[in-house]
Amino acid sequence: MVGMLNRYFGIERAGSTVGREMVAGLTTFVTMAYIIIVNPLILRDAGIPIEASMVATILSAFFGTFAMGVYANRPIAVAPYMGENAFVAYTVCGVLGYSWQTALGAIFISGVLFVLFTACGIRQWLIRAIPGSLKQGFTIGIGLFLTFIGLVTTGIVTKNPAPTVPVSLGDFRDISVFLAMFGFVLMSALMAWRVPGAIIIGILVVAGMAYGVGAAPVPESFVSMPPSLDATFLAMDVGGALTWGFFSVILTVFVMDFVDTMGTLYAVSDRGGLLDENGDLPEIHKPLMVDAVATVLAACLGTTSTGAYVESATGIESGGRTGLTAVVTGLLFLSALFLAPLFMAIPPCAYGPSLIVVGMLMMSGAGSMDFGRLDEVLPAFVTVVLMSFTYNMGIGMTAGFVAYPAMKILSGRPGEVPAGMWVLSLLSLLFFIFYPH
């Protein structure tokens, strides 16, 4: 069995082992298992039945992640995006007043377009046009974004009630915050000592401590039957989404999904040493096609756009280098249909520190930026800061796409802008012009 896995995934060739890949898959799953509960809770505000939405979330995550492992052979997990579920719930359905069925119709259309663009090589052409400085910005920005998510998730940073100060330091007298800080130190120390599985060890130790001191409830049960999917299966209204008034929604969903997946693929692949000598991702059409098909399936099941998850970096940091990592994560998602109480018992104070640790490591690329070239650095800087400070990766990336050709024009170097970047810049401008508020 081990030999077969080695041959299929090329594990030894990638410098990994079957055991390390399995630990990495578990680490990725534990870090992102929150999506099983959080995604349906957000989409409930759009009117989507929470039970069916949870099943749709799990199944779409399983399919996308498993396919990413088996077909694309990448250690990257796929699941419904957090930013897009909030966009659908609070903007499309909340502010604009569209039905959730019509919103899912827009997701379906976006996914079909991605399938066509990937099959025709258009997505790959656009991605190859992105300059190295912006790719560096993606990695650094996602590192800062992960850090911010971890700080907020653990309560180390909290929302400030004062209107002039958006955030403040959390209450360190709170046992959960203390455990999160301890978890960060423990994981960092274990990694410094080169202990295999440092991140998952830290997560499990802090979870056990949280149960022991009453900071998190011990699960009352470990097994539950999955609810029915009937309420959302094939409920999308594609015809309702094919109207001019809905153009801005489809454009927003399309651009957000495009840049989120692209940026995440490059950032986590860069961290795992999976890029080639030119800084490109080999056979990129495979993960892009998985992302596209998974988005179509997600809309059919009853949830929002799926794509590569930044939390995959925790598994990669744990040693995951091949698709076996994703296969393990996908199978754990599938088991969550019946074991949700067990998996959801991992408290934020246990998995949150791993995001901070990995975010710190992903920001190491800042030292290689050429700060003597303002026309290269400024677009990357815009990307980094807006990713985190708007709490939306898509906004940061699209802003970088606009800033790059603008700075090249202002510095007298418009000839350095690849043709594909002009297309991305135009799409990004349309994104900001038509973005619904």
Short recap of the structure:
With 437 residues, the chain is mostly helical. 66% of the residues lie in helices and 3% in strands.
Model description:
The protein is mostly helical. It has one domain. The chain is 66% helix and 3% strand. The chain has 19 helices and four strands. A two-stranded antiparallel ribbon has the order 1-4. A two-stranded antiparallel ribbon has the order 2-3. Helix 12 packs across helix 18. The protein is globular, with a radius of gyration of 21 Å. The N and C termini lie far apart (53 Å). The mean pLDDT is 87.
SSE blueprint and pairings:
Elements: H1 2-9, H2 18-32, H3 35-44, H4 50-70, E1 78-80, H5 82-95, H6 100-119, H7 122-128, H8 132-154, E2 157-159, E3 167-169, H9 175-192, H10 198-213, H11 238-241, H12 247-271, H13 285-301, E4 306-308, H14 312-317, H15 323-343, H16 348-362, H17 374-389, H18 393-410, H19 419-434
Antiparallel strand pairs: 1-4, 2-3
Labels describing this entry:
437 residues; mainly alpha; two-stranded antiparallel sheet; two-stranded antiparallel ribbon; 66% helix; globular
Measured as a percent range, the helix fraction is 55-70%
Strand content range: under 5%
**Low-confidence runs (pLDDT<50, min 5 residues)?**
none
Integer count of domains: 1
Rg calc:
21 Å
Q: Would you list the SSEs in sequence order as H and E?
A: HHHHEHHHHEEHHHHHEHHHHHH
Shape: globular
Compute the average pLDDT: 87
- State the end-to-end distance: 53 Å
Strand order of the main beta sheet, please? 1-4
Structural class: mainly alpha
* Number of E strands: 4
Describe the main β-sheet briefly.
2 strands, antiparallel
Number of helices: 19
